[in-house]
Amino acid sequence: MRILGIETSCDETATAVVEDGTKILSNVVASSQELHQKTGGIIPEIAAREQIRCIIPVIEETIKPFSHSAIDALAVTVGPGLIGSLLVGVETAKTLSYVWHKPIIPVNHLVAHIYANWLESKPEFPAIALVVSGGHTDLVLMKNHPSKGRDKLRWLGGTRDDAAGECFDKCARVLGLGYPGGPAISAAAEKFPISNCKATSSAYFQFPIKLPRPMIETEDFDFSFSGLKTAVINEVKKLKDNQQFNNITIQQLSFEVQEAITDVLVEKTIRAAEKFKVKSILLAGGVAANKRLKEKLSNHLIINCSFLSQNFVPTTLLILPAVPFSTSSQSLGKKSLSIPGWESTKKLLIKFKNLSSYFFPRKTFHVLTVFLAQLSS
């Protein structure tokens, strides 16, 4: 059985054909990152317009090796995300469903981020998932797969304002480092002497900068990063007023931004893992690719948890998705994978082969039908 997946939750148009839940046969990603680099961040209207421009060519390229009759079902991201971008993918999937008479599988892309950890590993339950990206920062407790019951997936807490990835982007813009902010700040932080074990340098002590770690000591599992962004803006203003804003202080601020964000993420994640005595800690989302975040979580488990903490299950493992699976900005290529619950999904699709006519009345379709109908020829 082959499924055509459509992902348009933000600034990228991504589609893939997956066979029997185990093999990616075709995968195409179109990104509007270059456009957003000019503004230092994602502008939703521009992202949506690029989705409209790219969606048909991307699908055509993805299904080029196949006829539409070889596609058994459609899977599409229905949220969360930018509403304009999401609508492009959802309306496209609805139209193809109508034209091709194929069922649709709605997908929550945050859950999909979490399940990227099953592509190359077999996490044990219970598990804590830290979902951290440009738009989301959430801690999720997984007692089992959601297919075993809705109560098996429990949201513990999330950001009250800016997401961690958004904070990276906005701080990078203030520092003049460009977009995307996460990789830019990480690269600048690595150049700062104290971050690569050259602490004898006087650079750190000449302009001592210490940024806040928002909500790190609160007992809940919520986050807040807007205050950190404001602190960076104030520090930059102070440095500029004193004519001290230079490469060294930019590197130092980048180092502190990364340390502050990752300190909070790690502290909250470890605290949740200890409270619920989990066997696995899962990283998910684009910020999961951050090297420093992975280092801190790994070191914390080795030093403080696996061997020393009585509150921790000794077999707790940190599951790290491969970089291509942590964010949709990477091309997957052909890849074998294992999707939990695939067999039950397969049976459901066979049982409800013409489910699309139930989901979407004809009047919901617009002129997109005319263009996408060409794909069925």
UniProtKB/TrEMBL annotation:
<feature type="binding site">
    <location>
        <position position="182"/>
    </location>
    <ligand>
        <name>substrate</name>
    </ligand>
</feature>
<dbReference type="Pfam" id="PF00814">
    <property type="entry name" value="TsaD"/>
</dbReference>
<keyword id="KW-0819">tRNA processing</keyword>
<keyword id="KW-0479">Metal-binding</keyword>
<dbReference type="GO" id="GO:0005737">
    <property type="term" value="C:cytoplasm"/>
</dbReference>
<feature type="binding site">
    <location>
        <position position="109"/>
    </location>
    <ligand>
        <name>Fe cation</name>
    </ligand>
</feature>
<feature type="binding site">
    <location>
        <position position="290"/>
    </location>
    <ligand>
        <name>substrate</name>
    </ligand>
</feature>
<keyword id="KW-0963">Cytoplasm</keyword>
<comment type="similarity">
    <text>Belongs to the KAE1 / TsaD family.</text>
</comment>
<feature type="binding site">
    <location>
        <begin position="131"/>
        <end position="135"/>
    </location>
    <ligand>
        <name>substrate</name>
    </ligand>
</feature>
<dbReference type="InterPro" id="IPR043129">
    <property type="entry name" value="ATPase_NBD"/>
</dbReference>
<keyword id="KW-0808">Transferase</keyword>
<keyword id="KW-0012">Acyltransferase</keyword>
<feature type="binding site">
    <location>
        <position position="113"/>
    </location>
    <ligand>
        <name>Fe cation</name>
    </ligand>
</feature>
<dbReference type="GO" id="GO:0005506">
    <property type="term" value="F:iron ion binding"/>
</dbReference>
<dbReference type="InterPro" id="IPR017860">
    <property type="entry name" value="Peptidase_M22_CS"/>
</dbReference>
<protein>
    <recommendedName>
        <fullName>tRNA N6-adenosine threonylcarbamoyltransferase</fullName>
        <ecNumber>2.3.1.234</ecNumber>
    </recommendedName>
</protein>
<feature type="domain" description="Gcp-like">
    <location>
        <begin position="23"/>
        <end position="299"/>
    </location>
</feature>
<feature type="binding site">
    <location>
        <position position="169"/>
    </location>
    <ligand>
        <name>substrate</name>
    </ligand>
</feature>
<dbReference type="InterPro" id="IPR017861">
    <property type="entry name" value="KAE1/TsaD"/>
</dbReference>
<keyword id="KW-0408">Iron</keyword>
<dbReference type="InterPro" id="IPR022450">
    <property type="entry name" value="TsaD"/>
</dbReference>
<dbReference type="InterPro" id="IPR000905">
    <property type="entry name" value="Gcp-like_dom"/>
</dbReference>
<comment type="function">
    <text>Required for the formation of a threonylcarbamoyl group on adenosine at position 37 (t(6)A37) in tRNAs that read codons beginning with adenine. Is involved in the transfer of the threonylcarbamoyl moiety of threonylcarbamoyl-AMP (TC-AMP) to the N6 group of A37, together with TsaE and TsaB. TsaD likely plays a direct catalytic role in this reaction.</text>
</comment>
<dbReference type="GO" id="GO:0002949">
    <property type="term" value="P:tRNA threonylcarbamoyladenosine modification"/>
</dbReference>
<dbReference type="GO" id="GO:0061711">
    <property type="term" value="F:tRNA N(6)-L-threonylcarbamoyladenine synthase activity"/>
</dbReference>
